[in-house]
Write a structure and sequence with these properties.
371 residues, alpha+beta, six-stranded antiparallel β-sheet, four-stranded antiparallel β-sheet, 16 strands, binds zinc ion, SSUH2_homolog, Protein SSUH2 homolog
Length: 371
């Protein structure tokens, strides 16, 4: 019944913690020139700095033409309609203030948003392994190309993505370190015995009096359900294949590093509200490296552009390769609407191309009590 003697013979006693998957020993990884610092799990060094370009990139130049800046405004009808829609979106709110309120003032607090996007590619390497199933083995057949010399198809500009690639000429086959090349590991549930103490009679073989335990037929032990009585289970690291393909994995990550600067306005509407809306695009400039926008009517925008462009080009070229930059200026319409309802003055804001409404002080937020 218990054929665990065979399983036992396969395994020398492995001391105490033969359960935990062991970390691969350092000797498992070949020494690959150009990849000396590469570690298991990538904990070693993070992203690899790209090599310096052979010829220096062209210095960015200011745009030759200056755009015309014109400032739109919204009508009273637009403001009222947006407010009505907003109020009806809150099921408990009374529609009365939005419907009957009389607009007494409309003030524009339009603001500018400068946005800089820097699209980068970064690369990192780590040792990795997978079950060996006959994949090509190419370690040492040629020198491995440098991490930045491996051709990778990049996505469209400003589209984020990550790709993993086996570094050519680094794949080799090794005995699985986890099961020592056995393909199976002792079962932790029964400590490799294949059976364990019967849960029904706690090993006595009898229950209340002299009745034989019918769960284990009086043996006092039962088959281990975890390993089906084998005493061992398939190794999870090599999936029973006994061998692993060990290789250096290159991870390539494309990131759009986006940063906004919004000119402070005194309307009382918090700047965070603007993150969800778009504005009218006044300026757009896409280049390998942009030159900070110049001559914009609001000097705060020009100053922010200079600061962000310098910071991005410096920071992102150190640990990654800059592929493209884009700078935009949007005009975000903000209208502060003052209206009278039941003799009192209240305000709300309509902002963005989407005519979003903010009405933190709506006078009738519960239709059950007001009216
Ligand atoms: Zn029993
Ligand atoms: Zn077991
Ligand atoms: Zn294994």
């Amino acid at each position: 019944m218990y054929n665990n003697s065979e399983a036992h013979a396969m395994y020398p006693p492995l001391a105490s913690n033969f359960a935990a998957p062991s970390a691969p020993p350092a000797g498992m990884f070949d020494n690959v020139p150009g990849y000396e610092g590469t570690t298991m799990g990538g904990g070693g060094g993070g992203y690899l700095p790209p090599p310096a370009p052979i010829c220096p990139p062209p210095a960015p130049e200011p745009a030759p033409t200056q755009p015309e800046w014109n400032i739109p405004s919204i009508s009273e009808d637009t403001a009222r309609e947006a407010f009505r829609l907003f109020a009806s979106g809150h099921c408990c709110w009374s529609k009365a203030p939005a419907q009957d309120g009389v607009i007494t003032a409309m003030d524009a607090f339009n603001t500018y948003r400068y946005r800089l996007e820097t699209f980068t590619e970064s690369r990192s390497t780590e040792w990795d392994h997978e079950q060996y199933d006959g994949q090509p083995v190419d370690a040492y057949t040629q020198p491995a190309p440098g991490p930045w010399d491996i051709p990778v198809q990049s996505p469209s500009h400003f589209e984020e993505r990550t790709e993993h690639i086996k570094v050519p000429y680094t794949s080799s086959v090794k005995d699985c370190h986890d099961c020592l090349g056995q393909g199976r590991k002792p079962c932790t549930e029964c400590a490799g015995a294949g059976n364990k103490v019967c849960w029904s009679c706690s090993g006595a073989g009898v229950r209340s009096g002299d009745d034989q335990c019918n769960h284990c037929s009086g043996r006092g032990r039962e088959n281990c359900s975890d390993c089906h009585g084998h005493g061992s289970k398939e190794c999870e690291t090599c999936h029973g294949k006994r061998q692993l393909l060990v290789y250096i994995k290159l991870s390539v990550k494309w990131t759009n590093n986006k940063e906004d600067f919004v000119v402070e306005q005194s309307s009382g509407l918090k700047i965070e509200n603007l993150a969800s809306v778009s504005g009218k695009e006044l300026f757009k400039d896409t280049q390998y490296l942009v030159y900070p926008v110049m001559g914009f009517p609001d000097p705060a925008v020009g100053q922010a552009a200079e600061r962000l462009v310098r910071d991005h080009q410096d920071r992102h070229s150190r640990s990654s390769r800059i592929l493209q930059q884009r700078q935009t200026i949007e005009l975000i319409p903000i209208t502060k609407v003052t209206y009278k309802w039941k003799g009192d003055k209240h305000t709300y804001f309509v902002y963005g191309n989407e005519f979003e409404v903010n009405a933190d002080e709506y006078p009738a937020t519960c239709c059950c009590t007001v009216m």
